[in-house]
Amino acid sequence: MPLTVLLAEDDEGTRLSICDYLELEGYSVVLASDGEMALQQVFDYQPQLIITDIGMPHLDGYSLIQKVRQHPAFRLLPVIFLTAHNAMQDRIRGYQVGCDAYLPKPFDLQEIGAIVRNLLERSQLIQSAWIQQVALQTAQQRAMQAAGQTWERDGPAGTMAPPPPPYMPPPDLGPDLTPREQDVLILLSDGLSNAQIGDRLFLSPRTVEKYVSSLLRKTDTSNRSELLRFAISHHLVS
Q1: Which of 11, 86, 88, 219 could lock onto 104 through a cystine, CB 3.0 to 4.6 A?
Q2: Residue 82: CB partners within 8 Å, gap ≥ 6?
Q3: Taking each helix axis from N to C terminus, what angle separates 88-97 and 61-69, rounded to the nearest 10 degrees?
Q4: CA pair distance 186, 176, nearest whole angstrom
Q5: Of 73, 24, 21, residue with least CA distance to 51
Q6: Residue 124 has what pLDDT?
Q7: The pairing of beta strand 28-32 with beta strand 49-52
Q8: Which DSSP string do the residues of 178-219 spell out, in sequence order?
């Protein structure tokens, strides 16, 4: 599934240009034209990243992020301020309320794309590490409980410490694929051609072929059959 970006911007032209660019980069984009709408969509869509203007109707960007940060589930949500408020005090206040990047207008779409990609990759790594840690702790607790039950049956409680739990290696997460590469891989597994994949994802066959080449390189495979076997064995597709 593509990662979701919430874009809060009251200027329609700016909003649509950023939306088009991010969608071409493979993200799902949710749009808001004011701060109150953006706040509601945070709860409705639970995006993985927020891009927001500061000067917006009803609720400005500072207040929006302050309200978002009040909820534990969104305290680590990456936030980018994209604004014409470029004074030093504006930037300081932005970082104080919890933004991760502060971009002045006018802006460059490629720079926005690079920052979005960097923040999302870091956020996903943190989330994956946390999931692995929780899984490892759960496995260790179960191993200790199982060892304790066997130990109590073999002798009186308190005569010796139960054996340490076995080492649990972290799961193999496979290659780090972009959202668009994941979409292409899923459609490849369904047996679709480049042209059919392009129709589904609104891409040209040439662009699809570039994504396929990137998948082959990242998985160290030489053809589509090997790529699909790799994807199935690493649970990248069902």
Answers
A1: 86
A2: 9, 18, 51, 52, 53, 103, 105, 107, 112
A3: 20
A4: 15
A5: 21
A6: 79
A7: unpaired
A8: -HHHHHHHHHHHTT--HHHHHHHHT--HHHHHHHHHHHHHHH
Q: Map tokens 């064995």 to a residue.
A: 233
Three-point CA angle 150, 154, 157, nearest 5°: 85
Q: Where in the chain is the domain with CATH 3.40.50.2300?
A: 4-120
- Tell me the CATH number for domain 4-120: 3.40.50.2300
For residue 235, how many other CB atoms are within 10 A of its CB?
Answer: 11
pTM as predicted: 0.56
Q: Is the distance from CB of 29 to CB of 7 less than 8 angstroms?
A: yes
Mean pLDDT by 10 residues, the chain (238 residues): 90 93 92 95 94 94 93 89 90 90 90 92 74 72 68 47 52 69 86 84 84 87 83 81
Counting Cβ atoms within 10 Å, is residue 10 exposed (0-12), middle (13-18) or buried (19+)? middle
Class of 179-233 per CATH? Answer: mainly alpha
Q: Where exactly does CATH 1.10.10.10 map onto the chain?
A: 179-233
Closest by alpha carbon to 224, among 176, 25, 3, 237? 237
Q: What angle do CA 213, 217, 219 make, to 5 degrees?
A: 115
- Give the pLDDT of residue 176: 78
Q: Measure the CA angle with vertex 24, ends 172 and 100; round to 5°.
A: 70
Of 96, 104, 169, the closest CA to residue 132 belongs to: 169
- Which residues have C-beta within 8 Å of that of residue 17, sequence separation ≥ 6? 109
The answer to whether 185 and 31 have CB atoms below 8 angstroms apart is no
